[in-house]
Design brief:
disordered N terminus; 321 residues; six-stranded antiparallel beta sheet; five-stranded mixed barrel; 14 strands; globular; single chain; alpha+beta; OB fold (Dihydrolipoamide Acetyltransferase, E2P); Thiol Ester Dehydrase, Chain A
């Protein structure tokens, strides 16, 4: 913005959208159903028995699934929300990133139930400066119902921002890779990666391994856990080749795969060592730790080389070090 007066005037206009409708009278495109529950549980590796059988319930974290509009969108979306986003675009905040969401589950959903929803703009922040750039956080609140009964609340927050300008230099720096979200639940995993170790959670009650890291066991509900170091070998379970969009820190096309680890969990990561068009389901891979910059190390999956056991890998590291 050109001046403090303009900034204040824009913020006042943005605040005027708080409490306005973003979507009204929406209806889920499908009732709660067992096939979608099964697909979700398979993708998440969640084998809890509550989600199968004649008395199955939907996993609570599927809440947003029942309101998604798909490629065609939802007719329930209100003009006020598009007006809000248009106002931010016109002010120069043309980039957008999802920052976080919060959900509440008054009761579980069951197959056959029809979900309806209404969404309001809960808040628009004052102008904020972040590492990405300067902009405004927009939070919407969606209330989901079965009949008149409230069955879930979903808050979703985005940042509409103007990208920060990089300082000029003789040779422009390569853009940094996006940072992973590190929180109290997964900090141990990322510390292990920094040390060149692939750590997997293991429930101390039922000994089931799990990934991604969670505060409790999705098999038995146990709250206590320890870790095991993965050997680091596996094979490609499924994959996609990314062509678009072209983010500055990436060099498409490249392959991103879901890897079946020898320990019985699955993990996402880039496949390296072979051309992207040679990646196939079942391709053997082993972990490699890619140092992106002084702050970020990522696990990637190298194909086309002999798989190493953990003792082999340790011996190689010692010889190299």
């Amino acid at each position: 913005m050109d001046s403090d007066v303009d900034t204040e005037a824009l913020t006042a206009r943005l605040k005027g959208f708080e409490g306005r409708t973003a979507a009204t009278g929406g209806t889920g495109k499908d009732p709660v159903n067992l096939p979608m529950i099964r697909h979700w549980c398979e993708a998440m590796g969640d084998t809890h028995p509550a989600y199968t059988g004649p008395d199955a319930i939907a996993p609570p974290t599927m809440l947003q699934v029942w309101t998604m509009g798909g490629l065609s969108g939802h007719p329930a979306r209100a003009a006020a929300y598009d007006e809000l986003l248009g106002l931010l675009d016109a002010a120069g905040f043309t980039s957008v990133v999802a920052t976080d969401c919060e959900q509440e589950y008054p009761r579980p959903l069951r197959p056959g139930e029809e979900v309806t929803f209404d969404t309001v703009v809960e808040s628009v922040s004052d102008r904020k400066t972040t590492r990405l750039g300067t902009g405004h956080f927009v939070t919407t609140r969606t209330e989901l119902r079965v009949g008149a009964e409230l069955v879930g609340t979903h808050r979703f927050r985005i940042l509409k921002y103007a990208p920060a300008r990089r300082p000029s230099a003789r040779e422009p720096d390569r853009p940094r890779r996006p940072r992973p979200v590190v929180n109290r639940d997964n900090a141990g995993f990322w510390e292990g990666v920094r040390q060149g170790r692939l750590l997997i959670q293991r429930c101390t009650a039922c000994t089931r391994p799990r990934h991604p890291w969670l505060p409790g066991c999705n098999a038995c509900g146990g709250q206590d856990w320890d870790t095991v170091e993965a050997v680091g070998t596996g094979h490609v379970h499924s994959y996609v080749v990314m062509h678009h969009p072209r983010f500055p820190a990436f060099d498409p096309p490249y392959a991103v795969a879901l890897i079946d680890l020898a320990e019985g969990v699955r993990m996402l990561g880039n496949v390296v060592g072979v051309p992207y068009d040679k990646v196939r389901v079942g391709l053997p891979v082993r972990v490699e730790f890619q140092v992106c910059d002084e702050e970020l190390t990522l696990p990637v999956w190298r194909a086309g080389e002999k798989e190493l056991t953990l003792p082999d890998r340790r011996a190689g590291e010692e010889a190299a070090g």
